[in-house]
Every structure is written in structure tokens, then in C-alpha cells.
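Title: Comparing notes on inverse folding

I've been comparing how different people in this forum approach sequence design from structure. To keep things fair, I'm posting one structure and asking everyone to reply with a full sequence. Here's the target:
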């Protein structure tokens, strides 16, 4: 049984030869693993650990990022970032000073045309025996809440959900529109080569949801349904990742539709949910 067969067998709720393994780690972890295994590449780490999944994501080929003398830069969301140790941290939040829906609409949102979809088949060719998951190896796997907080700042966006819901909805709508079109182009480019579509919104704290179930259903669930619907149209299983402790049992099974792998990073657990 190769890695792809192993993952798809588990997702089908059947017995694989062993439990499938995935690894999606931050740089300090992979750096330490490289030192431990005395290798220089992430791929060598994944092989050493028997990781069964590989990520597929288009390369960025859009406008060159603006770089400042201190080494900080503006990324393709327009977010000002700077390396602090091994992490890229946010310096400025581009939507922090916006006070109206009109300003949100006039913002320079990223363009899905800024990515190389033609190179995706070549990436798939490298990993024929692995289960392929559509996800960014960096911080920008499809989501809505996480990027909204990156753009607006966490505290402001939390206040928007309660006090300025029209601004919150406008931000989430534009993020979702971008990711839906980006994902549609990815899925059309890869054809049947990939197996799993990943959504990665950090919805959890140490003890529960970051926002209330009512707010989740009002602000997040409609976009989640759109992402899952697009994945289902292209015969993809759905992986939903969140840092923190996550319990989405209040959502109906119709939200998830097809079999979905839900994973939580803070208190490790994962389960398969089937409609």
C-alpha cells in the first residue's frame, strides 16, 4: 500500500496498513528535524518520518514585493511584514484605519492571476505515490477569519464582528471571493491529480472557539460552505485545520457534505466526519 492508497483508505473509513501521517510544521520545527535527521531539505524530513501527504500550491508570479531597507516587505495581501527570529510577523495592518465599506471595496485586493497554475501538473508529477492536498506551505491556505485578522488586526476585527458587522462582512466577502477564484483555477489546473482540499482558519483558543457559535454561523459558515461546495464539485475530500481547541459539533453535517478530516493543533486530535 503506497501513501496515497493509505490515506484514501483511511478517509473511506476502511482499515489501512498503518495510520497515515501528515506533517505541516512551522520553520523552527522543520529546522530542528533537519538537524536531527542530518538532512538539508523538508522533503528528506517527510520521507524520514513516513509522511503520506504532500502539499500542492501555485508559485507566486505577481508584482514584485516592495522591500524596505530594514528587510521588511509588503506581501501580496498588502500586509507589511518583518522577520523576527524564524517567523514573519506583521508590522502594519493595511485595513486598520478603514472606517467604511466603501474604503474596504476600494482597497487593492490581490488578483488570482498572480499565480502560476501551469506549473501545478509538474508539481503533482513529483509525488505520484502520495496523497496530494491543496494547501499553501506558508500562511495563506484558503480561509477567511485568519486573513481578516491579518489585514485588520485581531482586536479591531473582533470589535467589527460585534460593533461594525457590515465592515466585517465586507472584508470576509472580499477574502472569500479571492480564495474561491484562486481555488477554482487550481482545481481546474490539477484535474484529478489531487485528493484533498485544505481550509485552514485558526478558530480556536486553548479552551474553545475564538468567537461564539452564533457569530461563526453568521460570519464564517456561509464562506465555509462555499469552499466545501467547490471542493465537492471537483471530487476532493476536505481537510479543515485550526490551531486551538476546536469543537464544531454545532454545525450541521450538511455544512461538511463529503467526508472531512478535521484537525486541531493545540490539543492534537483528528477525526473523520461522514454525512
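Reply #1:
Here's my take.
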Amino acid at each position: 500500500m503506497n501513501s496515497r492508497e493509505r490515506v484514501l483508505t483511511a478517509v473511506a473509513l476502511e482499515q489501512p496498513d498503518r495510520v497515515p501521517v501528515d506533517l505541516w510544521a512551522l520553520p523552527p520545527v522543520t529546522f530542528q528535524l533537519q538537524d536531527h535527521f542530518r538532512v538539508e531539505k523538508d522533503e528528506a524530513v517527510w520521507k524520514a518520518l513516513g509522511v503520506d501527504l504532500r502539499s500542492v500550491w501555485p508559485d507566486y508570479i505577481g508584482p514584485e514585493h516592495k522591500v524596505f531597507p530594514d528587510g521588511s516587505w509588503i506581501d501580496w495581501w498588502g500586509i507589511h511584514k518583518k522577520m523576527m527570529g524564524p517567523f514573519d510577523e506583521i508590522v502594519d495592518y493595511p485595513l486598520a484605519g478603514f472606517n467604511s465599506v466603501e474604503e474596504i471595496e476600494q482597497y487593492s485586493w490581490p488578483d488570482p492571476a498572480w499565480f502560476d497554475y501551469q506549473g501545478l501538473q509538474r508539481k503533482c508529477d513529483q509525488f505520484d505515490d502520495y496523497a496530494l492536498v491543496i494547501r499553501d506551505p506558508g500562511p495563506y491556505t484558503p480561509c477567511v477569519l485568519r486573513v481578516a485578522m491579518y489585514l485588520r488586526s485581531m482586536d479591531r476585527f473582533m470589535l467589527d464582528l460585534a460593533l461594525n458587522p457590515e465592515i466585517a462582512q465586507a472584508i470576509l466577502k472580499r477574502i472569500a471571493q479571492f480564495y474561491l477564484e484562486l481555488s477554482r483555477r487550481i482545481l481546474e489546473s490539477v484535474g484529478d491529480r489531487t485528493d484533498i482540499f485544505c481550509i485552514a482558519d485558526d478558530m480556536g483558543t486553548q479552551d474553545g472557539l475564538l468567537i461564539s457559535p452564533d457569530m461563526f454561523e453568521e460570519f464564517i459558515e456561509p464562506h465555509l460552505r462555499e469552499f466545501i461546495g467547490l471542493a465537492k464539485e471537483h471530487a476532493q475530500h476536505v481537510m479543515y485545520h485550526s490551531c486551538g481547541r476546536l469543537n464544531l459539533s454545532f454545525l450541521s453535517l450538511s455544512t461538511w457534505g463529503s467526508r472531512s478530516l478535521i484537525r486541531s493543533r493545540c490539543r492534537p486530535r483528528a477525526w473523520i466526519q461522514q454525512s
